[in-house]
Amino acid sequence: MSLDRYSEFTGLLFDRPAPYVLRLTINNPDRMNALTPTMHKQLERVWAVIDEDSETRCSIITGAGRAFCAGGSTDAMAGDQDLDAGQWMSRDFNSAKSLVNSLVNSRKPIVSAINGAAVGAGLALALLSDVPIAATTAKMFDGHPRMGVVPGDHAAMIWPLLCGMAKSKYFLLTNEPMTGEQAERNNLVALAVPPEQLADKAVEVATRIAAGAPTAIRMTKYVLNHWLRQQQPIFDLSAALEMINFGGREATEAQTAFAERRPAIFPTDPFF
């Protein structure tokens, strides 16, 4: 089965571990698979290409090396010096919206094999997949409030549906990391398995889905994801507020503290 149609997606690796199953591997292992702007754009576009691939009925997304995806790279966060603040925020808002919508509206089922750290946009990729499967040792961490911004790429949209409002508020407000084992207990993922079993389990689940009635399965995904489409105003608000936060003092202090390897000291006069 040919992989030629995917040659443009240079930040991803592709293989076919089973009939009608395509595996995408985020390939930036030296930086914990942090997404460069180019990789982010590729992950926005690749699902539409998969939808037109007659040789694929179900896909798997995972990460190269020890991490799943550490979110946006610091290069991406720095923005483009040729853009003013409004243009930069509009670009990043639209990019975040494009990634989320491409996952929600893709026709074919997606299994995520969360092999290690999943943070920020990486956690969005993991949890907006249709069947998230985590290694018990994987670490999941939204991370946005720690960086002085609203969780604006998926969490407000889907966490309350998955694990309820109380758990969502606890983990998002405290920014406490969650292991794959804890994520399964809290219904944030479908399954958690020992790390050495993760790849095989993801292929097993994807193969079962690929062997099913494809039209019925795609329609089932479409219907279930209407719960997410109904949350679009919540997502839009969270993403817009995140962009506002990125221009504020709290985000500046968080990024400075991160670079200086010290705890952030946030202002005592919040504007909201």
Describe this structure in words.
By secondary structure, the protein is α/β, with parallel strands linked by helices. It has one domain: 2-enoyl-CoA Hydratase, Chain A, domain 1, CATH 3.90.226.10. Helix content is 47%, strand content 16%. It has 11 helices and 10 strands. The protein has a 6-stranded mixed beta sheet with strand order 1-2-3-5-7-10, sandwiched between helices. It has a 4-stranded mixed beta sheet with strand order 4-6-8-9. The longest helix is centred in the middle third of the chain and has 21 residues. The chain starts with 11 loop residues before the first strand and ends in a 13-residue tail after the last helix. The model has no long low-confidence stretch (mean pLDDT 93).
